[in-house]
């Protein structure tokens, strides 16, 4: 199933939600599953950092959007829980966020 949105709705540095995907533009368009592997925050409400990673809106875990792997664990009080970051990172290596495909057709983006 494919869904469209105008490219003008997704300027560089922004993220939005399209069905089950968090769709963003970090210079390249990307689509990843939108539920954070920590406590299932909606990653469509996240942000993009200087490395082009997707940052969770709740506790600021970071994902590599090309692999779906968490590259920084949850921050704040969660960062002080022994073993939590290593456990979640290992989990996302085994079960990364799903990745979708974003194709550009004129001024439309197709997400599938
Ligand atoms: S829910 Fe995403 S880091 Fe906690």
Element-level helix/strand string: EEEEEEEEHEE
The CATH architecture assignment turns out to be: 3-layer Sandwich
The largest β sheet comes out as: 4 strands, antiparallel
- Biggest sheet strand order reads 5-6-7-8
Highest CATH level, the class: Mainly Beta
On the 0-100 scale, what is the average pLDDT?
Answer: 96
Bound molecules: FE2/S2 (inorganic) cluster
Q: How many structural domains does the protein architecture include? A: 1
Number of strands: 10
Radius of gyration: 14 Å
Which blocks of ≥5 consecutive residues have pLDDT under 50?
none
Structural class by SSE content: mainly beta
Fraction of residues in H or I helices: under 10%
Tally of helical runs: 1
Quaternary structure annotation: single chain
Spatial shape: elongated
Question: How would you describe what is shown here?
Answer:
The chain is built from one helix and ten strands; from the N terminus they run ββββββββαββ. The N and C termini lie close together (6 Å). Strand 9 (102-105) and strand 10 form a beta hairpin. The chain has 112 residues and is mainly β. It is elongated, with a radius of gyration of 14 Å. The chain has one helix spanning 84-94; strands spanning 3-6, 15-18, 21-25, 29-33, 47-48, 54-55, 62-64, 69-72, 102-105, 108-111. The protein has one domain (3-105): Rieske Iron-sulfur Protein. The model has no long low-confidence stretch (mean pLDDT 96). It has a four-stranded antiparallel beta sheet. The chain has a three-stranded antiparallel beta sheet with strand order 1-10-9, with no helix packed on it. A three-stranded antiparallel beta sheet has the order 2-3-4, with no helix packed on it. It binds FE2/S2 (inorganic) cluster (FES). The site of FE2/S2 (inorganic) cluster has 9 residues, from loops. The site of FE2/S2 (inorganic) cluster (FES) has 9 residues, from loops.
């Amino acid at each position: 199933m494919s869904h469209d949105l105008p490219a003008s709705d997704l300027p560089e540095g922004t993220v939005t939600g399209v069905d089950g995907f968090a769709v963003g533009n970090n210079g390249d368009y990307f689509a990843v599953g939108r539920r954070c592997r920590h406590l299932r925050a909606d990653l469509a409400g996240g942000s993009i950092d200087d490395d082009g990673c997707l940052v969770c809106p709740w506790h600021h875990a970071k994902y590599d959007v090309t692999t779906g792997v968490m590259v920084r664990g949850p921050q704040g009080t969660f960062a002080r829980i022994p073993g939590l970051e290593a456990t979640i990172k290992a989990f996302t290596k085994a079960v990364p966020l799903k990745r979708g495909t974003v194709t550009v057709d004129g001024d439309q983006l197709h997400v599938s």
